[in-house]
Design a protein that fits this description.
The chain has about 180 residues and is α/β, with parallel strands linked by helices. It contains five helices and nine strands; from the N terminus they run E-E-E-H-E-H-E-E-H-H-E-E-E-H. Bound molecules: adenosine-5'-diphosphate (ADP) and magnesium ion (MG).
Length: about 180
């Protein structure tokens, strides 16, 4: 995972090391497979608390839903997250009856529609929320949140950039860095 091969030129570009710690609020990681992305999500999900907002940004196929599946598993969801085609909001439960929401804002065209589906209420209801396509509803996002921007590197690799805003999320990212990467 941390082999020298990561540092070689790929498609004429020099890849960054697997985990540059950019600053205390951000972290970058190169995932080599969907399974690895899911595992990274599972570790993150283990630290999810009531009311946490996790935004997953990136193009179609970047791996947002794959990461969300891991997060839900780590949180303890009884069912696996699927990629909803028409449903914007999906609800997942844990054995203790607490709930987690997975929202796909891809088809939302602006803040009006976001309000229409009750996104604001969802963010303030106290349940964890995983949101794909946060840029579609930028006006409705809470200022404190964790954002993970995923980007396509090649067929099997994705870059994950974690960005924490607000004290809760900076602390969470600090803990995550230790448990997931030992750093
Ligand atoms: P999104 O929700 O961003 O549209 P999905 O998670 O639904 O993306 O799909 C990502 C696709 O890319 C899946 O088919 C997955 O198997 C594939 N994939 C290949 N490599 C990776 C990787 N390293 N991490 C996540 N997904 C990957
Ligand atoms: Mg998706």
């Amino acid at each position: 995972m941390r082999g020298a091969r990561l540092f070689g030129p790929i498609r004429g570009r020099i890849m960054p090391p697997p985990m540059p710690i950019l600053d205390e609020r951000s972290l970058e990681f190169l995932s080599h497979s969907p399974e690895q992305t899911r595992r990274l999500g599972t570790r993150l999900g283990e630290g999810v608390a009531e009311g946490d907002v996790i935004c997953l940004a990136g193009d179609l196929g970047a791996g947002k839903t794959t990461l969300a599946q891991g997060i839900a598993r780590g949180w303890g969801a009884l069912q696996a997250i699927t990629s909803p085609t028409f449903v914007l909001i999906n609800e997942y439960r844990r054995a203790d009856a607490s709930m987690l929401y997975h929202v796909d804002a891809y088809r939302l065209s602006g803040p009006g529609e976001a309000e229409g589906i009750g996104l604001h209420e969802l963010f303030t209801a106290g349940h964890p929320v995983i949101l794909e396509w946060p840029e579609r509803v930028a006006e409705c996002l809470p200022s404190d949140r964790l954002t993970i921007a995923l980007s396509w590197v090649d067929e099997s690799r994705r870059r994950l950039r974690f960005e924490a805003e607000g004290e809760r999320y900076v602390q969470w990212l600090r803990d995550y860095r230790k448990t997931a990467f030992g750093g």
